[in-house]
Amino acid sequence: MSKKNYFFLILILGGLTALGPFSIDMYLPGFPAIAKDLHTTAAKVSLSLSGFFVGISLGQLLYGPLLDRFGRKNPLYIGLILYILASAGCAFTASINGLILMRVIQAIGSCAAAVASVAMVRDLFPVKDNAKVFSLLLLVVGASPMIAPTIGGYVTAAFGWQTVFVILTGIGIAILIAVFFWLPTSYKPDESISLRPKPILLNFWAVLREPQFYTYAFTSAIAFSGLFAYVSGSPILFMDVFHTDEKVYGWIFAFLSVGFIGSSQVNTALLRTYKSEQIINVALICQVIIALTFLTVAINGWLTLSTTIVFLFLFLCCIGFTNPNAAALSLAPFTKNAGSASALMGALQMGMGTLISVFISMFEVPSALPMVMGMAGTATIALLVLWTGRRRIAIPVDVQQDADTPLFH
Where would you find this protein in the cell (predicted)? Predict the structure, then answer.
């Protein structure tokens, strides 16, 4: 594969992967405006975010078997068309319940892109390159939280929050065109895969029983849900507690994303020397220490805008290390069932994200504590799951063959 084709392929896969995050981040600065226009509260508006996570969780379980049975592109076309129609529906809704419903449908459409992109990494690249490719995808994905809330803040201030969803509709159309004309077919349809409920459930169960999968998939999902705690809690924290406006919030969100993006790229360099298992272990220990310190400071009322930004930046850096390595290790044992494994891994992530976002939305009083408690709890549980699960993996399937240097000497 030439460098030009490699770059272009990463760009398209990154666009598919970023569709969901862009849909999450771009409308966040509009929470107060949506609440005002739809005559509701910011906490109720946050349920539209929870609804998005629910849609992604359910949709990924649907698309996994479809991608394995019919190939990657046809189910992807259906998902993108559904996304485009639902995005337009969000722009014209007149009630908070209508917005929540459209967001669920929008998510079901967008998750086809997420599942397909992860499965196609496993299809198109050698296993030993998967962690590197996932890190590169995070670079593209990472641009969304830098660009999306900043654009969303300015668009909301100038034209209203509805325009955000008009823009998302256009992005969906652009990605659909790119997939149709330039994304190669990476996987032949497998007619032996049944779409009846029982075989599908048995297929998912076979994936879930693999110790390497459930150890790293659950570790990743629980650790990554700390990011959902941040995303769900940050609009209330920054705009209601620290009283920033939509534009400033967008810039803060963009700055914090630099930590997530930067660490994912440092991870690419570390993979030349260290194993994914080593990096995850150290990153999660750091994530727990940072989160518990953050919680202690918040409980004692010592938080300021600047210290909050510092803690969030460091926390997101840790996730940039754990997520790509855990994804690569989760999928490494699979070839035939890569689509189902990808879907199950994504569903676990979004399921955990849904739970934590609902937890955040339950608190009507503006405070940093719900968000920080969610971050500390998820990081601690993820580390315990990792340490417990690794004992059950007999012979790990490595994602790189020559990384033997211990991370701690």
Answer: Cell membrane
Are the beta carbons of 324 and 131 closer than 8 angstroms?
yes
198: Cβ contacts below 8 Å, ≥ 6 apart: none
Q: Does pLDDT of 60 surpass 90?
A: no
Class of domain 3-181+195-392: mainly alpha
Structure confidence by residue, pLDDT tens digits, 339-362: 678 778 878 888 888 888 888 878
- Read off the DSSP letter of residue 402: S
- Domain map of the chain by residue range? 3-181+195-392
Per this entry, what is the length of the chain?
Answer: 409
- Print the SS3 string covering 135-184: HHHHHHHHHHHHHHHHHHHHHHHHHCCHHHHHHHHHHHHHHHHHHHHHCC
Residue ranges of the alpha helices (H) in 244-337? 246-270, 276-299, 305-331
Q: What is the mean pLDDT of residues 71-82?
A: 91
> How far is 136 from 307, CA to CA, in rounded Å?
30
- CA-CA distance, 21 to 41, in Å (whole number)? 23
Q: Cα(171)–Cα(175) distance, rounded to whole angstroms?
A: 6
Closest CA to 44 of 95, 119, 108: 95
The token pair at 83 is 């996304």
Interval 177-215: pLDDT, tens = 999 988 887 677 777 777 788 887 888 888 888 889 999
